Structures are given as C-alpha cells and as structure tokens.
Amino acid sequence: MKLQTLQALIYIEEVGSLRAAAQLLHLSQPALSAAVQQLEEELKAPLLVRTKRGVSLTPFGQAFMKHARLIVSESRRAQEEISQLRGDWEGHVTFAASPAVALGALPHALASFSREFPSVTVNVRDGLYPAVSPHLRDGTLDFALTAAHKHDLDADLEAQALLVSNVVIVAQRQHPLAQATRLAELQECRWAFSSAPRGPGAIIRDAFARHGLPEPKMGLVCESFLALPGIVAHSELMTTMPRTLFLRNAFKDLLCSLPIEDELPSPTIYVLRRHDLPLMPAASGLIRWIQHHTLNHHMGIAA
Fold first, then answer.
1. Under 8 Å between Cβ of 129 and 146
2. Could you write out the DSSP letters of every residue in 102-138?
3. How far apart are CA 224 and CA 144, in angstroms?
4. Closest Cα partner for 9 from 95, 78, 92, 72?
5. Prior bond to 46 cis, omega within 30?
C-alpha cells in the first residue's frame, strides 16, 4: 500500500478524473491506473467505477477513503514535525475559523505568524462545529476555531476556550419586525441557520428555549459566512450572527440588528482539535499568535 496511490485516490475523489489526478502527481495515466489496480488487488475490492463522465468511488472506495486520508495526513504530519523540530520551519497548517475570529484577531495573528515562519503555508477555511469534526478526525484540519457547547462535544475532541462571542439577531432594514424588543414577537419568523441545528449557527433555538418559546421555524441552512448576510438582506428571513460579522459585511447598509432586550446566549469560541493527536510546532505557534491577538483585540474593544 503506497502513499502515492493513497494520495492519488484523494485527488481522484476531488477532481473525478484519473487523467487530472495523474497530472497532479506527475504520473502517466496508465501508471496511475496500474497503481490503483494493484491496491484493489491488495484489498480484494473494487475502489473505483469508470463512467463516461469520469470515475467515482464504489461503496468500498468510500469506506476506504477515510483511512486513506488519515494515513496520508499522518505521514505528512510526521515528516513536517520532524523537520520543524530540526529547525527547518516549513510545512503546512490547515484550520477552520468562525467569523467571530476570522473578522477579528485572525488577520493580525496571521501577519505575525507569517513574519516569524515565512516558509510555512497556512490554509484557512470557513467552518463551524459539528461540520468540522470529520476533518479534525481524519487530519485534514489541524484545529478549528469555532463556537460549540462544550458538554455536547464529541468525546475524541479537546476544547480550549479562546473568547466569548457577542451574538446579535439580524434582519433586513425593512423587515416589519425590525424594531422588535422581545423574542416572543419573533415566533412566526423564519430563520436562516448558519450551521446544522446541533451547531452554534442555530443558537436561536437555545434563546427560544431559555424563554419558554416554541422551536423557531427554520427557513434554510446557509453554512457560508459570505453568502448569509446577502441572503438575509434580500429576504424576510432572520438570523443570528457574531456582531463582528454584522458590522463587517458587504450588505451592512441593508441590514439591521434588532434591539432585543431578552438575554441572548453568548457562545464560547474554542480551539478544537483531536485529543490524541499532538499539534505540530508550527500549528502550536499559530495558535499562540491567535490567542495573543485575540486578547489584545478584545482589550482594545473594552477600552
């Protein structure tokens, strides 16, 4: 079982083509096909099915992929960790961030990290819990900066508190309930969640429950922080979002923050990672910069 073949499977899943995957690996297509066939013989199961549109994974291939991603990720991490411990600061750090961090301290943290470790490549993604969990488990993500209910976290994840997020209820300026002051006034509204109902993007459910109100009516789930403000600005939907996202989005002039007097939940943003997977030195260094600038950012706001 060769690492290059496992990496090829990951590319094939991403691009849906043997030819494109072979180009990414600088191999010929026949050589890649032979390598995949050899792996299928080792596993005694077909991993790919070929169609006129390209290739896709069989049920065996889909089951095998989580192992392939973990093996490739662990191999990369091992090589980069040894290199970093030798003082060769190269490699990759990949993480997901919620808008409460991405629009606050993160740009300053990344600038500081880049000056200290200019040869380390950083990959940042949008992401909230629980959607980030599979990517933390398979090593695709080194860590995630996301709100979560700590008591509801998966047992294999470790959480370190980073900051408390200030959440507001947002609607278009012309919404008939734009001046509502009580949650009870919003019972008939439809809501845009920014995560699955279990996640922090559905925090309005907690708010309603705390005040003895029935379940809020979900209109849609939009896990794109870029798209969410525009969707709300051009619809009758309401949503919750970190105040930083409300203040710093392209549709700010079309939106308003409702003057709700009822107390809203203040979710904690955590640094999430697998508890059994130590962070590489570069990832630890980046987290230290994020913590440093988060503290400075919130002290500045308080001042």
1. yes
2. HTTTHHHHHHHHHHH-TTEEEEEEE--TTTTHHHHHT
3. 16
4. 72
5. no
DSSP-derived letter for residue 280 is P
CA distance 99 to 92: 22
Q: Which two tokens stand for residue 42?
A: 């080792």
Convert the pLDDT of each residue in 184-241 to its tens digit. 999 999 999 988 666 666 899 999 999 999 999 999 999 888 899 999 999 999 999 9
Measured CA to CA, the distance from residue 4 to residue 72 in angstroms comes to 9
Q: Quote the strand ranges of 211-260, DSSP E.
A: 217-221, 238-242, 255-257
Question: By three-state DSSP, how is residue 174 classified?
Answer: coil
What DSSP designation does 218 have?
A: E
b/e code 258-282 from CB counts within 10 Å (16+ = b): bebebebbebbbbbbbbeebebbbb
Contact 129, 148 (CB under 8 A): yes
Helix (H) or strand (E) holding 23: helix 18-24
Within a 10 A sphere around the Cβ of 257, how many other Cβ atoms? Answer: 14
pTM: 0.75
User: Is residue 195 within 8 Å of residue 126, measured between CB atoms?
Assistant: no
- 93 contacts 280 by C-beta, under 8 angstroms: yes
CA distance linking residue 286 with residue 99, whole number of Å: 17
From the list 199, 168, 130, 156, the residue with the least C-alpha distance to 70 is 156
Radius of gyration in angstroms for the set of CA atoms belonging to the chain, rounded to a whole number: 22
Alpha-carbon distance 224 to 229, whole Å? 9
In this structure, are residues 109 and 289 in contact, taking their beta carbons and an 8 Å threshold? yes
Helix/strand number for the chain, H first, E second: 11, 12
